[in-house]
Structure prediction request, 831 residues.
Amino acid sequence: MKFSVSKEKLLAGLQTVQNVVSTRTTLPILSNVLLQADGDQVRLTTTDLDVGVSGAITAQIEKPGATTLPARRLANIVRELPAAEIQIEVDSKNVASIRCGQSFFKILGLPEEEFPPLPKFDDTRTFTISQQLLRDALKKTSYAISTDETRYVLNGILFSFKENKLTLVATDGRRLALVDLEIEFPRSQEVDIIVPTKAVTELGRLLGDEGDVRLSVGENQVAFQIGDTLLASKLIEGNYPNYRQVIPGEAKERVTLERELFFNAVHRVSLLSSEKSNSVKLIFTKNNIEIAANTPDVGEARESLAVAYKGREFSIAFNPEFLQAPLRALPNDEVYLDLIDEMSPGVIKIQSPFLYVLMPMRIS
Amino acid sequence: MPSPTVDKLLNSADLKTHWSSISARLKSEVSVDTYERWFRNTELVELDHEQMTLCVPNNIYQLWIESNYLGLLQSSAMLALGSARAVKFVFSGEQNHEAAEKPMLPVGKAPAPVTEELDARPATIVANGMNPRNSFDAFVVGPNNQFAQAACKAVSDAPAKTYNPLFIYGGVGLGKTHLMHAIGHAIFGKKKGAKVVYITSEAFTNEFIDAIQNNTLIKFRKRYRQADVLLIDDIQFLADKGRTQEEFFHTFNTLFDGHKQIVLSSDRPPSEIANLETRLVSRFEWGLTAELQAPDTETRVAILRKKAQAMDVRIDTEIIQFLAERIRTNVRRLEGALMRVASYVSLSDGRAPSREKIEHLLKDILHEEARRAITIDQIQRRVAEHFDVRLADMTSKRRPANIAFPRQIAMYLARELTKTSLSEIGDAFGGRDHGTVLHAHRLVKERMSKDEKTRQVVSFLDTQLTR
Prediction:
């Protein structure tokens, strides 16, 4: 196999796939990237057996062929090379010679046959979604994914395809984020899948502003086709909890908040909440919210925010990180905070179909 | 009462009791919506010293309860059961098999001290013989029960400080038990760990007999004499039970001297409970005696509206008015009738039934009501007619035997067939006092038991009047 390619292209290609490569693996082949040169393309593929990513770059191919090379090492080398044409030649023993200007590297690879193939998809359901919409939706939900490994069904985002709607849900038991997207598909394609966190993270990086992404859902696996790039992932098996049960009934009070102002205020005040009493209190009075935190033996912080509020005077406490997360992720200038009482969950909403349910902390 | 031991397999009734005492505590800690949403459909299916297993509809319940209410659940369980338990979940439909993966460890897992456990148990069990729906909020106040309700409210606000003992009396289905339960719940909710003991006097008697048989009098006494609030329902059943009365007398004194609240209910005032020792009667009259009377029409309408709302059915104003007018004496019967109409409406796709339909639907109840609607005046007329004496003789002061005896029979019937009190009957018979009525009643009863002819006459008049 022999090909030459510009440094930028190769680096970009490697960066697309290299995140999947796990640093500690018992199988050496999994730290390698598969390179397949054919036609005018070199295809780069990595996998950790759960998630695999494959991308293509255009190159001048002198001799087609395939090999695997240590992904991180290769990427580190390419990154340091001068911005010029890179020539890579691999012999039958999978030893690669890399030439660029006056630099020469020789690295040892492993045969292509050892590389585990990405899953094949037959009998699949396929869906097409705008890349931008899906990226937004992932951003609005992914922060609420549970990291508790004992609750493995929650270690991912639920993609629920139902009634011409894709609902994305993430929860960790104390908060829940949900986005609805309108897409069209036949009834027969309705399905619920749980996409694991790692795939969600990769997907978030791969999705761009333009074009569509094509989803293929197979038995226990899913693939996302974004242009030339393919991301395939195993699905989390199990039943996602019935999230509808969590969504509170009609709100008693609604406040419209300027997202950034509110976020900054909560952020500042939360500096004086502690690990132990990890909460900020929102005290609602007429046309005002006071945000307060207080840690015994450390100190306290308070900040007032003028808002249009005509409801009942009361206070409610939240985990500051959980309160900030959606505010950080949402692009909107204004968000709505719906509340019932001090013991019932709060809900953050925006103009579009999104909601974030947040359990209050008990004020002692 | 034979108390179940935890080591034995608990039967479902025991588990229910435990769960209701745990959930009663939960209820006071979380919002109504939260309770309805997460705990209403939860059941306790297994319990031992180490852990409790809750059966929930599906995995979202486990997730949300574990994440948000586990601490609360464990502290409630600890208070209700006397020691901490690990919490395990199963989903309905797969009980006992696929227990959810993760038994959570309790915060501070201490081995259960058995004595404490047994000690903590009776209070919660007895306290939860009370129906949680019987709260002050659900009680419709009208002129008929305002005084009693206010007295009960005062007692629940400041137990043993205002009216002690509080004696509530009134006819069947007028809300005695409701008010008792409401007091119990209010005190229970306000003061965590208050030992609220609610029991009917009949159960009290049975437990007392059990205690004598099994030689567990000490335990029995401990249970009642250490209560903070003792609620005894239907105290009139203590009549004729000499030893139970004596036991109760001492319980009463111990609690009263210890400034503990005592609330009693009966279907008649203390002085009218036959065969009740005078020392008990005088003690019952010591505090406040409040009467519950039959509700007036407006109150009945209000009750029906409230109940219809609680049942979440819409019933025409006309029908409510009709029910309220026809069923006068008994709230329980009123509710029964409403329930019947409501289920009829729901079965006939919400179409409002006609007046005739309702009359047919409720014919037994209405018939029964009509029977109750007899007035003293009717009785006097009927009796006078039968014995061929003048109506005026019913109220006159003359007392030759041929007038006095019919008058006594009329008084007897008035007592049996109407809900009026002794003194009101006395008034209706020319301003006689209640002792006279009581005497007449006793005399007629005695004659009836001895004399076939008297019995025939009285039962003839009875059927004539109630037809």
